[in-house]
Batch of 2 targets.
Target 1
Amino acid sequence: MKVDCVIVGFGLAGMAFAKELEDNNKTFIVFEDTSQTSSNVAGGVYNPIILKRFTPVWQAKDQLDMALPFYREIEEKLNGIYDYTFPTHRIFKSIEEQNNWFSAADRSILSDYMDTNIVRTKYNGVLSPEGMGRVKGTGRIDTKKLLDDYKIYLENRNQMEYSTFDYDAMTTNEVNVIYKSIETSNVVFCEGYGMLKNPYFRDLPMNEVKGELITIHAPDLEVDFLIKSSVFVIPLGNYYFKVGATFNWKDKTLLTTDAGKLELLNKLDSFISVPYTVVKQSAGIRPTVKDRRPLVGLHSDDCRLSILNGLGTRGVMIAPKVAKELFAHIYNGSPLDPESDISRFLKD
Ligand SMILES: Cc1cc2nc3c(=O)[nH]c(=O)nc-3n(C[C@H](O)[C@H](O)[C@H](O)COP(=O)(O)OP(=O)(O)OC[C@H]3O[C@@H](n4cnc5c(N)ncnc54)[C@H](O)[C@@H]3O)c2cc1C
């Protein structure tokens, strides 16, 4: 079999690159072994503001300008709904935080998103004595449903192979890369934390961080917006909410833990006062990089091997943009964004 490209890994990165290939009439096959869960468990939130400090997310506007049409196109292609828009309400802890909110909202880069009318409405079960700041232009991508549907779409086209990519079975000749019975001109590795097993890219400085989430059912919590306090409470509909997430730099397993659950419950109880039941808990490892920028680019010794990784805590917003940039680099020779290009880690 001859294809233009092989993709290894079908999380948000692999999916975004697959769409880019398909949009440009390139043939490809995907290898996916379900060894990582980050994209499947993610909260799926997109939000242009870092709500701890009220500063803009790196390249937020450019990323959103690309991401929102990107997900709309997938909704049309797969005939599904994945993008749920709602505002985010940031609970203020003090008057000082309110003042910081107003100062930040004055900045032209943030003013489109930050509402300067403080939310004073009392919502049943939400403890917010100092009010809340409202962020516009936020929402959630149902990443699990999107990826599940996209996989079925590719299965029906014989473009999805459920197996672990075996690096030892890959060889190269002067023209192509050979993997078992497949001949291709490019292999794009999108393995998330799985990158650490990849002999071609494992030396890149990933600083992965495990995250856990719980899903709760709270029949008296009448909110249709995302609440941000010490954790996110993300509305899923029918009084179900995702609550998260933890950050753990030591534990590298995908197992859910009692400690993770307890941490989330303690934080949740500090600002939610209605009864709820926990219906689910999940965990994944975010492929975060030392300098908090993506890992995009070609292998320094073999330009047929490339990487799309390091999406960190914000894969939903970043994936569409970096996939487009890597595609343009491989097939049109366009330069990569130096902040994402893995050559920033090459030693002189
Ligand atoms: C708890 C939690 C909450 C999060 N919340 C948000 C959020 O609200 N908003 C947001 O934008 N981001 C969020 N993130 C971050 C987001 O999930 C990541 O940025 C994103 O999922 C990374 O996507 P990826 O495709 O690079 O990696 P992954 O999702 O890890 O995908 C890599 C894929 O490669 C496969 N794979 C690996 N090695 C191989 C191999 N050798 N052969 C075959 N297949 C292989 C894996 O099975 C996996 O499917 C969250 C993450 C976590 C853990």
Note: Residues 60-78 form the longest helix (19 residues).
Target 2
Amino acid sequence: MTDKPSGLFHRDRSWHPAALTPPYKTSVKRSPAAAPISMPSTLSEDTGPVFTRDILGPQDADLIHNFASEGQSAIGPRIIVYGRVLDENGRGIPNALVEVWQANAGGRYRHKKESYLAPLDPNFGGCGRVITDEHGNYEFHTIQPGPYPWPNGPNDWRPAHIHFSIFGASFGQRLITQMYFEGDPMIWQCPIVGTIPSREAIETLVAALDMRRTVPMDARAYKFDIVLRGVRQTMFENRMEGL
Ligand SMILES: [Fe+2]
């Protein structure tokens, strides 16, 4: 069944985390206390925003170098993250804006409210962006982020992850999510991951190591496909906006 008039498929809310998930402590204050109100979308949500490549800087898709001093590079395991942005029918979405942000290899963010003891890397900013090609492909180069502790329970740690924001063909396809790494045991300890209702759903957020795309003596590759709507939509972070 599709929404009208946009033609976008409804999201399956049982596949996504509930807004209120007390083991993820801040969801208690963030989640709405009243039932959401359904509103029909209008032209502004159905048709925009539109992004073109002229907004991109030459190193936007290279987090290893885009904050580094001349001749320097970020510290950490070098990786390529690539995949496709797909619509509900499995078709690649061209010209989707994919924005990413992450901690450095020690698990520390470059943010004024960061409190973790791990040091900043002077050559790593932690932000990047790319626009998908005509088939919905994207790729960026970065370093593998480290896990980090966060003030939730007495000893909670986030698994290594990269945050993603994706603008598809319209606001109706906006998605914010997180990507995890194949084989990381911390995934299964995380209270945020634990808000996702099923193991099958969690596994859609785990990027697979892909040795075929690895560049010898340079970088390993991880593959992460993203589905913006429909019954197999990639998990939306547990907040109600966009659902
Ligand atoms: Fe994070």
Note: Helices lie at 27-30, 43-47, 199-203.
